[in-house]
Amino acid sequence: MNTHPYLRAYMAGITVPTMIFLPLALTGFSIARFGAGLQVPNERVIVFPMAVVPNLFGVWNILYVAVFHRRNVPIGPFGAILPFLLLPLGTLLATALGFLTHEARGIVWFGAVHIPYVAVATFFCVAIAIYYLVWKYLVGGLNGILGIA
Amino acid sequence: MNEWSDDQIQKALKAAFPPAAASESRRDLWPRMLRRMNAPAARVHWLDWAVAAVAVLLCLVLPGAASLLFYFL
Q1: In a domain, B69, yes or no
Q2: Would the CB atoms of B48 and A133 count as touching at under 8 Å?
Q3: pLDDT of residue A92
Q4: Is the pTM of this model over 0.80?
């Protein structure tokens, strides 16, 4: 009997970004636009968290179940690698869509929020930590419930 | 055309299909199920709590840069 483990892995992977991250991001950017008065182009900004991140989570979990789980690779560090893929992808898309510009000392977000490169590097480390925890406890927990890892 | 009786069909079918294997499991699965139901919930390691605390603290200290997380998460 085919139990479709890769379909279940994909579904377990997309659950967390779709149900937790996306509403958080949409709420945050809406508050920035309508509350703080920043010129946030929500319809362009939301493309990456809505379309790219969940699918990448799903594909990453399929890869884990198909290859790395069998080799006893822990899921937390495996998930923590994902920001190394997401950062260049997201930066590229944000620059192409025109709401992220680069300066000598840092980046400018929505033409208004200046973030120095030190802060970007700091938050990259925070993202790695968050991804580690999310993959270890949430995606790993869902994999356990679905009986795939 | 040769007409078959019900008995003949029954015998032919029995001869064609091998007898089904024992449908019951050889071992009792209920104790395993009970163990799983009574297993304690996964505990979060103290180091993971510390990592989460540092992440939250940094978001509070640098809220502007925290908007990056909304985008990349």
Answers
A1: yes
A2: yes
A3: 92
A4: no
